[in-house]
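Let's practice the habit of predicting before peeking. Look at the sequence and jot down your guess about where helices and strands might fall. Then scroll down.
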Amino acid sequence: MQGAHVQVWYDEPAGPGVEVSTGPAGFASMPAPVGDPLRILVAVANFADCRRARRYDPPVGYNMSEIAKGGLSAENTCGQVAERTKPGELVLFARPSKWYEQLNKTPQ
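Done guessing? Here is the structure:
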């Protein structure tokens, strides 16, 4: 999605994280991590996240070595889209939010 704001954390979701925005093609570059993280955690801020909501579960982390090796694609409950990941890519799916979904959204 063009213009999506994504919060990024390395290893643990501590603090506000780093916010990246997607460009015209829907891609965003993640900032270089400090140290050698094992996983990345992400949250979509201004669109509806297409991953299954897990209210009381810990955030889903994506293995950095798997992303570097062949790329990873997150869960997509919004539709059936075929995608091919490339090494170094993490693909997230999002859609525009409905007006009523914004009413109960808690700030990150």
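How did you do? The longest helix spans residues 64-70.
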